[in-house]
């Protein structure tokens, strides 16, 4: 899974 | 995903749909700033460079395609659609936005999470989005009366980032290592720029009057 620093927001 | 972020994305989607409705229903883009639309197209193209490299979720990918597609379609429409382009307020929409683009890119080169191509462009898109509404707000002040759909478009566009601020507060409180200073500070600046618009929008809604921004 992507770490939370990934850009999971739009 | 939390309720604040979902509400923010839906509000953002509504703002795009309202703008598309206005342009297609009235075949007119009067009161709409082409420069703000072009800035938003740059924002999405710079922010979603990871569209094909990082798959996060179907929702994420679909929404990115919707935002990129709609912003490019609106810019195309306002520039080349033979009926719509005639109603573009060319002489009022004169904000020199390349200054904003240059300043935001320079800031992104200095202030970013990681010094990589994708991260610098991501920070650039965050800073640029914070100021992208300026040409539109200037145009609204110059063009005096604002038609309902245009007012609603700007209102939803401003409200979506306010929901995102609640989302960042929620994630900061619930996720141990969550920090997004670049997004948070830019989001606060972005929402603050709408403050006076929200005030006059509320007044017009309360008095059930036409939205009038003071010149």
From TrEMBL, chain B:
<protein>
    <recommendedName>
        <fullName>ER lumen protein-retaining receptor</fullName>
    </recommendedName>
</protein>
<feature type="transmembrane region" description="Helical">
    <location>
        <begin position="121"/>
        <end position="141"/>
    </location>
</feature>
<keyword id="KW-0653">Protein transport</keyword>
<feature type="transmembrane region" description="Helical">
    <location>
        <begin position="97"/>
        <end position="115"/>
    </location>
</feature>
<keyword id="KW-0931">ER-Golgi transport</keyword>
<keyword id="KW-0256">Endoplasmic reticulum</keyword>
<keyword id="KW-1133">Transmembrane helix</keyword>
<dbReference type="GO" id="GO:0005801">
    <property type="term" value="C:cis-Golgi network"/>
</dbReference>
<dbReference type="InterPro" id="IPR000133">
    <property type="entry name" value="ER_ret_rcpt"/>
</dbReference>
<keyword id="KW-0675">Receptor</keyword>
<keyword id="KW-0812">Transmembrane</keyword>
<dbReference type="Pfam" id="PF00810">
    <property type="entry name" value="ER_lumen_recept"/>
</dbReference>
<feature type="transmembrane region" description="Helical">
    <location>
        <begin position="179"/>
        <end position="202"/>
    </location>
</feature>
<dbReference type="GO" id="GO:0005789">
    <property type="term" value="C:endoplasmic reticulum membrane"/>
</dbReference>
<comment type="similarity">
    <text>Belongs to the ERD2 family.</text>
</comment>
<keyword id="KW-0813">Transport</keyword>
<dbReference type="GO" id="GO:0006621">
    <property type="term" value="P:protein retention in ER lumen"/>
</dbReference>
<feature type="transmembrane region" description="Helical">
    <location>
        <begin position="153"/>
        <end position="173"/>
    </location>
</feature>
<keyword id="KW-0472">Membrane</keyword>
<dbReference type="GO" id="GO:0015031">
    <property type="term" value="P:protein transport"/>
</dbReference>
<dbReference type="GO" id="GO:0016192">
    <property type="term" value="P:vesicle-mediated transport"/>
</dbReference>
<dbReference type="GO" id="GO:0046923">
    <property type="term" value="F:ER retention sequence binding"/>
</dbReference>
<feature type="transmembrane region" description="Helical">
    <location>
        <begin position="55"/>
        <end position="76"/>
    </location>
</feature>
């Amino acid at each position: 899974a992507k770490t939370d620093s990934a850009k999971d927001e739009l | 995903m939390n309720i604040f972020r979902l509400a923010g994305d839906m509000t953002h989607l509504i703002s795009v749909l309202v703008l598309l409705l206005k342009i297609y229903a009235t075949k007119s883009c009067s009161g709409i700033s082409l420069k703000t639309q072009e800035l938003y197209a740059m924002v999405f193209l710079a922010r979603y460079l990871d569209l094909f490299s990082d798959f996060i979720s179907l929702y994420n990918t679909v929404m990115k395609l919707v935002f990129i597609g709609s912003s490019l379609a609106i810019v195309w429409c306002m520039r080349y659609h033979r009926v719509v382009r005639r109603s573009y307020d060319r002489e009022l929409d004169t904000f020199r936005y390349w200054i904003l683009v240059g300043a935001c890119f320079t800031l992104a080169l200095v202030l970013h999470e990681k010094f990589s191509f994708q991260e610098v462009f991501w920070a650039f898109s965050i800073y640029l989005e914070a100021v992208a509404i300026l040409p539109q707000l200037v145009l609204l002040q110059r063009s005096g009366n604002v038609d309902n759909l245009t007012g609603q478009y700007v209102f939803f566009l401003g409200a979506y980032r306010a929901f995102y601020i609640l989302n960042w507060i929620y994630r900061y409180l619930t996720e141990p290592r969550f920090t997004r200073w670049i997004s948070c500070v830019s989001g606060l600046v972005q929402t603050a720029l709408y403050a006076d618009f929200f005030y006059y929008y509320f007044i017009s809604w309360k008095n059930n009057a036409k939205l009038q921004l003071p010149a």
